[in-house]
Amino acid sequence: EVQLVESGGGLVQPGGSLRLSCGASGFTFSNYWMAWVRQAPGKGLEWVANINQDEREQYYAGSVRGRFTISRDNYRNSVYLQMNSLRAEDTALYFCARDDIAGSTKAFDVWGQGTMVSVS
Amino acid sequence: DIQMTQSPSSLSASVGDRVTITCRASQSFSGWLAWYQQKPGKAPKLLIYKASTLENGVPSRFSGGGFGTEFTLTISSLQPDDFATYYCQSRGPLTFGGGTKVEIK
């Protein structure tokens, strides 16, 4: 079964840091781009960052550029989001998603259940 | 930055109704447009990609259309399982629409 499982969320003070993890299974992780997408409480979806297969390409939304860093470990089938200088507006449910940008859908075709980050 | 504007932001409909949601882009883009369905407390689910191609396993009552800067998601006969929030998403650049909540009338 294709699956993504996020972890690492929690409550953090403004200005603090947090590292999210996402473990993948059921597919060849190293063949895919991966992404993080967030959803503030009661709000819509917001793309945060994505990363290519060998980490050479990383892209960020303007709202997090310079504060967040996406990375991956293909041996551990995991993708990470290091979040620094956190702000109240970063409070959201953070989803890990498989990004099929190089495939036929060019969409986020597999999603985890999300991990909640609260900045207060 | 590109803006993806969905309309309506919410709608009330009955089982069996035909429902159409529109997504308008503020500028031209690659044309790769996806639609997702999200139920409360759940992750989004990919329904349609490349504007009109149904993802595997998605019921045929869902269809997508449009080109340029205006795209649509249509549910031909609304079913109880379809009450959810729907999002469009562009590629190149990558942006989500604000969402359309489909509620029971």
Tell me what you see in this structure.
The complex is a heterodimer of chains A (120) and B (105). By secondary structure, chain A is mainly beta. Chain A is built from no helices and 11 strands. Chain A has strands at residues 3-7, 10-12, 18-25, 33-39, 45-51, 58-60, 68-73, 78-83, 92-99, 108-111, 115-119. In chain A, a hairpin with a 4-residue loop joins strand 7 (68-73) and strand 8 (78-83). Chain B is mostly beta strands. The N and C termini of chain B lie far apart (36 Å). Chain B is globular. Chain B contains no helices and 11 strands. The A-B interface holds A 37, 44-47, 50, 59, 62, 95, 101, 104-109, 111-114 and B 1, 32, 34, 36, 38, 42-46, 49-50, 53, 55, 87, 89, 91, 94-99.
Key attributes of the depicted protein:
heterodimer; A: 120 residues; mainly beta; seven-stranded mixed beta sheet; four-stranded antiparallel beta sheet; globular; B: 105 residues; 0% helix
Given as residue ranges, the uncertain stretches of chain B (5+ residues, pLDDT < 50) are none
What percentage of amino acids of chain B are in beta strands?
over 45%
Tell me the major beta sheet of chain B.
7 strands, mixed
User: Total number of β-strand segments of chain A?
Assistant: 11
Q: Poorly predicted ranges of chain A (pLDDT <50, ≥5 residues)? A: none
The chain-level mean pLDDT of chain A equals 97
Overall pLDDT of chain B = 96
- Number of helical elements of chain A: 0
Compressed to H and E, one letter per element, the order of chain B equals EEEEEEEEEEE
Q: Indicate the radius of gyration of chain B in whole angstroms.
A: 13 Å
Alpha-carbon distance between the two ends of chain A: 36 Å
How much of the sequence of chain A is in beta strands? over 45%
Helix proportion range of chain A: under 10%
Helical residues, percent of chain B = under 10%
Largest sheet of chain A: 7 strands, mixed
C-alpha geometry of chain B = globular
